[in-house]
TrEMBL record:
Record organism: Mycena metata
Residue numbers spanned by region Disordered: 290-313
InterPro entries: F-box-like_dom_sf, LRR_dom_sf
Tree of life domain: Eukaryota
Protein name in the entry: F-box domain-containing protein
Length: 464
């Protein structure tokens, strides 16, 4: 042993701090564990066997978790995992220092989000300053996740809470329930995220974001039950490689609004439990880019029906086709608000939506050929079963609004014939129309309404 080593050993053996009781050492170590030295517990544990034992056996020393965007995501995740394990079962404080990119807020926090019931205090520094004391009511759940994809210049604002500007990362919706708000200029990708456990995500696009980025993000959300996406109309991406498939086994509600990427999104989501699909403001009067490799159904609409939004009709219809073929979801609700399809796509969908109960469509250019699909029919000769059938056999609620290409005669004939069949036979008991709402359909005149009321009675509601 050298003189230096002997001197250091002697000093260690007789250092006064080594005579302090463990309780005092713990208090000293807690003071050392501040944001100025976020790795203090690891440093202290290397000093001696005694200190290592004290640090590793004291959850209070590990209650302060400090993360920043200057470390790699992998090391930050390892850091968070170690601190949460060592501090168990105590609550802990989280401080996030983000000075480079707000895109990293969610990746840095993702391993800690499942443990929100242990968060005591949260603070952020760097590009934004905020803090929230959670000690009074520890959150049981963080849901939904609200994501706004915003221009980078607007992310620098200091005026939080203003309409259109960043809100605090966590806001309280109700006791023990938080909403998480993330404002980014681009979505984080799945490889930098610990799988997210949000059941609801609300995403708003204020700058161009391609469907690929949205799908890649959704791949990290396997427990998602409801997804609400509001975009804005910009050119879809030119595909040079296949889009990723977002497998969402628990997704039950999907809202897609105001985007030109409808086909890409619907075609690349696998949602075998989807029960509600809401499509809104997807119609556009300009031509969308064609897919690189056309598939079955991409041909022109053989019905040659008039359309003010021919290109988006095709995109919406082809997206819905792909969703139905891949997932065969048990859709009960289909809402199409200023969203339309070709006649051939309605025919394709109606043949596969065997449990649909509610169908709403507004501002459609669909013709009588579409409403005719709801008329009872007998399958083509040659099959063994030639009984009368109806498409959408469980349809209970039908709402048509501002569908001005429909004629009153077709509406009266089809709906009257349908309810006579489904009302009159025991086999259809419970599976007949319970509500029909028709509003602002120019082809439906007063006498048509009177004829329909004779058949439907109080089930019919007419609105001007």
């Amino acid at each position: 042993m050298t003189v230096l080593e002997l001197t250091q050993t002697t000093e260690t053996m007789y250092s006064p701090i080594h005579y302090l009781p463990a309780e005092l050492l713990i208090e000293i170590f807690i003071l050392c564990s501040t944001r100025t030295d976020p790795l203090a517990p690891l440093t202290l544990a290397r000093v001696s066997c005694l200190w290592r034992q004290v640090v590793q056996s004291s959850p209070r020393v590990w209650r302060y978790i400090y993360l920043d965007d200057r470390s790699s995501i992998a090391s930050s995740h390892a850091h968070a995992g170690l601190w949460t394990r060592q501090s168990y079962p105590l609550t802990f404080d989280v401080h996030l220092d983000v000075s480079e990119s707000s895109r990293l807020v969610l990746p840095l926090l993702s391993p800690l989000l499942p443990l929100m019931n242990r968060w005591r205090y949260y603070s952020m520094s760097g590009k934004r300053e905020e803090s929230v004391d959670l000690s009074g009511s520890l959150p049981n759940c963080v849901d939904p996740l609200v994501i706004v994809i915003q221009d980078p210049d607007q992310l620098e604002t200091e005026d939080e809470g203003t309409e259109g500007l960043p809100r605090p990362t966590f806001t309280s919706a109700m006791p023990a329930w938080l909403t998480m708000n993330i404002w980014v200029s681009e979505l984080p990708k799945a490889p930098v995220l610990v799988p997210l456990r949000f059941s609801s995500i609300v995403m708003t696009e204020n700058i161009p974001t391609q469907p690929r980025s949205i799908l890649e993000f959704l791949c990290s959300c396997p427990q998602l039950e409801a997804f609400f996406f509001t975009g804005w109309q910009h050119d879809d991406e030119t595909l040079t490689s296949p889009l990723p498939i977002a497998r969402l086994p628990n997704l039950r509600t999907l809202h897609i609004r105001s985007t030109c990427g409808t086909r890409s999104l619907l075609s690349s989501i696998d949602a075998p439990r989807l029960s509600e699909l809401h499509l809104a403001h997807l119609n556009v009067d300009f031509t969308l880019g064609a897919p690189p490799e056309p598939v079955d159904g991409d041909s022109e609409d053989e019905a040659r029906d008039f359309s003010r939004s021919a290109s988006s009709d095709r995109a919406t219809g082809m997206g819905l086709r792909a969703l139905l073929l891949r997932s065969n979801p048990p859709l009960r609700v289909l809402d199409m608000d200023w969203s339309d399809m070709r006649t051939k796509d309605f025919r394709f969908a109606f043949a596969r939506l065997g449990v649909l109960e509610h169908f709403f469509i507004e501002a459609s250019d669909m013709s009588d050929k579409v409403i005719e699909l709801l008329r009872p029919y007998v399958p083509a000769r040659g099959g063994k079963d030639e009984r009368v059938r109806v498409r959408l056999p469980r349809l209970k609620s039908l709402e048509l609004s501002n569908c001005n290409e429909l004629s009153g005669e077709a509406l009266v004939e089809v709906l009257s014939e349908r309810v006579r069949l489904t009302d009159g036979f025991p086999a259809w008991e419970g599976n007949t129309l319970k509500e029909v709402i028709i509003s602002d359909c120019a082809g439906l005149k007063g006498h048509h309404g009177n004829l329909l009321r004779r058949e439907l009675g109080n089930r019919l509601r007419l609105r001007d």
